[in-house]
Amino acid sequence: MPFRSGFVSIIGRPNAGKSTLLNALLGQKLAIVTHKPQTTRTRIHGVLEVPLKKKTKDVAGRPAAQIVMVDTPGIHKPDTQLDRRMMQEVHDALESRNAVLFIVDVTHKLPKVDPNAAGPGEAPKMKITGRMTLSAAEDDFALQLIQKLDCPVILLLNKIDTISPAEIMPLIAHWSGLYNFAEIIPISARKKINLELMLDKVVDLLPEGQRYFPKHQLTDQPERFLVAELIREKILMLTGEEVPYATAVVIEKYEEPPPQAGKPRAGAKLPVTKISAAIFCERTGQKAILIGKQGVMLKEIGTAARKDIESLLGTRVFLELFVKVQEDWRSKPGFIEDLDWRRQLEQLAEKQANEEE
Ligand SMILES: Nc1nc2c(ncn2[C@@H]2O[C@H](COP(=O)(O)OP(=O)(O)OP(=O)(O)O)[C@@H](O)[C@H]2O)c(=O)[nH]1
């Protein structure tokens, strides 16, 4: 069977489980996951190698494939310049895709379909009331987005580990009335339920083609930016209210250990990666929270992040964290552009070229 390849974007509203799905498929933590909405800020490419499944009497078989998965920020109504940037990331991720996975959280209450809201020939609109307002508006917004796409969309009903099987059928009926999905698959990203089935269906939708990335490359995002995300994840987990949303992390120094000749001796200490990172917040009050009494919070963030970074890099890590105030950075397009890891990568390359001249 000829090899297949293609780009597949994962979209859905905040907290639907996009990053959990990406990590579950890749078998490695690539995207940060927290219970707080809007954890993911930029597009992340995860490169997934899907092995050939031989056809047998009971199994339909599947060609081998490379799926470039694109995780996106949650679809939400933009309030700040940063939100607008995040939504631009979603739009970009939907450009020229082979397929889209639209993921919804089955624990959210269903919005009602309003038969009078749509004109003749238009897609049904949802009736949005009371406490469902925000989440339903976000699903509605997502539906409007996918209606403009010309690639197949698979609906993933995520978190089925939290509901009874009897509750699944009404959900399928509800969603199939709203859009002509290529497939509707109930899954649990956390418990890895139905992910193989989902991969079979995705590969089915891909064209024949060669790999976009080398076989063992897991992501297009260099390690130093994954490191920044791991630090941001700890801030999201350990601080509350506005602080996580007003925080950005920039790696200022990243010194990898020199390459080791030959295999390390048994019992030898691992080499050290030296990393300095700036944590930007918007106000001095937030800075005080991030540092904590006698630096306790910053120490906790650093210790937790260091452990994860060490397991990502496979080295020991010396991590220095600094907290800096950049007033209202979420409203400053220039600063937000500079935070984009692709932009930082360009700047680093320029700096390196200048140093070499
Ligand atoms: N019970 C259950 N929880 C899940 C499942 N998938 C994700 N979650 C949880 O839902 C929360 C949000 O998951 P994320 O993967 O960060 O969601 P996201 O859609 O990437 O969120 P944003 O980055 O905010 O857009 C986390 O607490 C996950 O552990 C699932 O299949 N079952």
UniProtKB/TrEMBL annotation:
Gene Ontology molecular function: GTP binding; GTPase activity; ribosomal small subunit binding; small ribosomal subunit rRNA binding
Location of region: G1: 12-19
Keywords, ordered alphabetically: Cell membrane, Cytoplasm, GTP-binding, Membrane, Nucleotide-binding, Ribosome biogenesis, RNA-binding, rRNA-binding
Organism: Granulicella rosea
Location of the region described as G5 in the Swiss-Prot/TrEMBL record: 187-189
Domain called Era-type G: residue spans: 4-208
One of the GO BP terms on file: ribosomal small subunit assembly
GO cellular component term, pick one: cytosol
Protein name: GTPase Era
Protein family according to the UniProt entry: Belongs to the TRAFAC class TrmE-Era-EngA-EngB-Septin-like GTPase superfamily. Era GTPase family.
A Pfam family this chain is assigned to: KH_2
Protein task: An essential GTPase that binds both GDP and GTP, with rapid nucleotide exchange. Plays a role in 16S rRNA processing and 30S ribosomal subunit biogenesis and possibly also in cell cycle regulation and energy metabolism.
Region (G3): 71-74
Subcellular location: Cytoplasm; Cell membrane
Residues that bind GTP: 12-19, 71-75, 158-161
InterPro entries linked: G_ERA_dom (IPR030388), GTP-bd (IPR006073), GTPase_Era-like (IPR005662), KH_dom-like_a/b (IPR015946), KH_dom_type_2 (IPR004044), KH_sf_prok-type (IPR009019), P-loop_NTPase (IPR027417), Small_GTP-bd (IPR005225)
Description of how the protein assembles with itself and partners: Monomer.
Region (G2): 38-42
The keyword Manganese belongs to this UniProt entry's keyword annotation: no
Membrane topology note: Peripheral membrane protein
